[in-house]
Amino acid sequence: MEASDSHAAPLADLIARLHGPAATGEALKAIAESCEAVRTAGLGNDTEAMKTLDSATVSLDPILRESALAYVSADLHRYLHIVDMLDNVLDLAPLEGINQIYWSMQRQLFLMRMDMASVPDFVTDRLLPFYERFLRQISVRLGLTPVARQPGMPGTERVVIVTNQFLSAEHQPSRDLLLLAVRLQRDLGRTVLVLNTNMMPDRYYSPFVPPFAATVEDRLSGDQTIRCGGERIRMLSSTAPGLTTDKLSSFLSAVEAFDPDLVIAFGGSVIVADLLEGTRPVLCIPTTSGRTVSLADIVLDFGGQAPPAGNGRLARSWRPARFGLSLRRTGETATRAEFSLPDAAFVCVVVGNRLDLEAGGAFLDLLGRILDAVPRALVLFAGGVESLPRRLAADRHAGRLRCLGHVERMEALMSVCDLFLNPRRTGGGAGAAQAMAGGVPVLAFDGGDVASVAGPSFLVADDAAFVARAAALADDSALLAEARREARTRFATVEREGADDRQLSAHMAEAIALFGRRR
Fold first, then answer.
1. What SS3 class is residue 24?
2. What DSSP designation does 187 have?
3. N or C: which end of the chain has fewer CB within 10 A?
4. Residue 347 forms beta bridges with which residues?
5. CA 171, 407, 466, 456: dihedral to nearest 10 degrees?
6. pTM confidence score
7. How far apart are CA 101 and CA 28, in angstroms?
């Protein structure tokens, strides 16, 4: 048998691209675009097509081949092959290449592009142990020796917060980090030092597709003081690229000199924090849902979901607590005329910083079904985009799908919206929280940050229920009013949970106690 006729052309294009140049970011992006096209077309579910792709790429660079086939099929067994290959050369392969591949895999997991059911224990049983081995290689090959505090020394009431990538006040996790630093200093009486380590790859070191390079904010370099919430927060940053002895040693020396009681890893796979786990107590505060990779004594959850399966390291360290999301609350409202919206329209909004990726063809088809069912509905997209406007312009509902781009007045925008629509994705939690704070009900599927923030009342099981719920809210003003009240109530609950300083203080104390028992 051969691949279906509908898949023959895109399959041939992908094979040709994989056999072509792959040494530059532009070439890798072109391959990734071809992978995305065949993935969207459903080629990953075409057994014969996948066999053809598999046999036609045997001779290629194995990282390129396995990552491309994983992209198309969403099968985590391909990532298992990559982990096995890296394990065989872990003491020889360039650290930058390993780092690139690790974060590229993590990015695909974050974007929900992989089928977690294909290897259910991938994160807990394979990715976490690989991450530990990678950290050992970093320590050995760069000669890093973190210095531990002497047992019995009095507490210093100092906390180091470590992040892989701090960007700006426009970046939700960066705002949340500053909120944490302010709470620790103002409310809990700690002195805080923030380490902005920039450990994620900022360029391409491996032929992994899709390629991933993190943004680095060049102005955030050296020893700086940031003012936030009436507090002065000291931050040490290094924008030097890559994993080097000088860069990592300087951070470890800064920790030794500051002498904190506790290290907080803000996010997952925070390399510098995890390098310290043998010498200092570590508490991990995730910035998103999903399984967090961390070596911390305690790893908080993102909304009280189920703990990791089994009795492994992640299961033992997990605690069902969510740290609060920082929102810009000004009380600003707007009129629909300010956003050129008809008064009678049922206004839906989709918010995000990755809408080019998250608002894919399947989601636009779903929105089309809502627009068919609700003739007075229109959908706004708020967030920086590049490719999405072109796709919306070609859609059959082009006039009712509007890209606003980046919106500064998000609270004002929410005041003129009726419903927050969420694609299937991991992120979006802050946008959903902003919507609910303004009384805008959320419509989402289970899984991801939005589901965690919104709670079960705002979740539906499938596409049909998604469309039906949107139509019901548009057609029944009483139902919409009740959903608005419920949204505000849910936000108040989430806000109260995330702002619980006693709970935060208790988790900090527990992490310190656990570290003391394992010394």
1. coil
2. I
3. N
4. 378
5. 50
6. 0.92
7. 13
